[in-house]
Structures are given as structure tokens and as C-alpha cells.
């Protein structure tokens, strides 16, 4: 018993933290980040420095940007959209992507780390759409605002993305 208390004390003093599972609510939020309500700065406050930033551009009467901010430690990407010269960090988050091995789980109990395509189909039922490539299968439940990217051979989940219901997944990160 003494040894166990000593180990716990050492872990506490060394700053050891048990990893929390990030909760995913389809079409709504990931952890404390709420779609169309939280801005990119709130993700920076929660997850720290941005590891990577990419920006897709679409031109028309205005220049539209799709901004992808990646936080490598957590394997989370937040996606926002801006017009012309808006400040990207103040823009609202419209999609959130989580990549393996992020410790995340949907409210229905699908874990990014431990589950696979079979569990997705058991829990969510027939997908509304699928996309298949040589390497992956994307399973979409657009009306719920959630999509899964699975390895085509091993069937394990590689990515989960949430977005407002009836939109489509990005998976460009």
C-alpha cells in the first residue's frame, strides 16, 4: 500500500496527467469547441500552438478562404471559413477533424482509437453516402453531421469529422 501511495505521489509531482477522452457530439461539438459558435482563437487557447496552417482559396466576387488549423499534439484540426481579408483567428469553427491516435469518442460510443468500420455500421446503421479510394473508405452520415475515414484494408478508423448537419466532410488535412 505504501508503494502505491509513493507511486501516485511521484506521478502527481512529476506533472503526469491521465489522458482524458475527448467527447464528440455529432453535428455539434468536440470537447469544449462548439460548431458555428467557438472561434479559432478558442481552439488555440484550449489546445496551444498551431502546428500547421493551410488555406484553400476560391475566387468570385469576393475571395473565400477555407482555413485549416492543426494542433499536432492532440491530432485535432479546426476548419473555418473567411471572406476577403478577415482575421482567420476570429473566424467561427465550421468543422472539426480528429485523426488517429487522438483519444476521442462519439456520444454513441465509437472510439477513434479502438473501433473500426464494423462498429460504425452496427451503431449508426447504413451510411447515407460512401467514398472509396485505394487506401480508404469514407462513411458519411451527413444528416447527423459526422463522417468517418477508415483504412480500407484494416478497417480501423483513421479520422472522424463533425460539421453542421446536411453539409459534407472536408478530410483535407
Short account of what is shown:
This protein has 173 residues and is α+β, with helices and mostly antiparallel strands. It is 16% helix and 38% strand.
Topology:
Elements: H1 2-13, E1 22-25, E2 29-30, E3 33-34, H2 40-47, E4 52-59, E5 63-71, E6 76-83, E7 93-99, E8 104-106, H3 117-124, E9 129-132, E10 136-141, E11 146-151, E12 157-163
Parallel strand pairs: 1-8
Antiparallel strand pairs: 1-2, 2-3, 4-5, 5-6, 6-7, 7-12, 9-10, 10-11, 11-12
Features:
single chain; 173 residues; alpha+beta; eight-stranded antiparallel sheet; four-stranded mixed sheet; 16% helix
General description of the model:
It is a single chain. With 173 residues, the chain is an alpha+beta fold. It has one domain. It contains three helices and twelve strands; from the N terminus they run αβββαβββββαββββ. The chain starts with a helix and ends in a 10-residue tail after the last strand. Residues 4-18 have low confidence and may be disordered.
Amino acid at each position: 500500500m505504501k508503494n502505491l501511495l509513493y507511486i501516485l505521489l511521484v506521478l502527481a509531482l512529476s506533472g503526469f496527467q491521465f489522458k482524458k477522452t475527448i467527447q464528440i457530439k455529432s453535428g455539434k461539438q468536440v470537447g469544449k469547441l462548439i460548431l458555428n459558435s467557438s472561434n479559432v482563437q478558442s481552439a488555440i487557447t484550449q489546445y496551444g500552438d498551431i502546428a500547421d496552417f493551410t488555406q484553400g482559396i476560391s475566387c468570385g466576387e469576393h475571395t473565400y478562404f477555407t482555413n485549416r488549423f492543426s494542433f499536432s499534439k492532440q491530432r485535432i484540426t479546426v476548419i473555418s471559413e473567411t471572406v476577403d481579408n478577415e482575421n482567420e483567428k476570429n473566424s467561427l469553427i465550421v468543422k472539426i477533424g480528429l485523426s488517429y491516435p487522438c483519444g476521442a469518442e462519439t456520444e454513441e460510443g465509437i472510439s477513434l482509437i479502438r473501433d473500426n468500420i464494423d462498429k460504425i455500421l452496427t451503431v449508426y446503421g447504413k451510411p447515407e453516402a460512401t467514398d472509396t479510394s485505394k487506401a480508404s473508405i469514407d462513411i458519411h452520415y451527413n444528416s447527423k453531421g459526422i463522417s468517418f475515414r477508415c483504412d480500407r484494408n484494416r478497417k480501423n478508423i483513421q479520422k472522424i469529422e463533425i460539421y453542421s448537419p446536411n453539409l459534407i466532410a472536408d478530410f483535407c488535412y
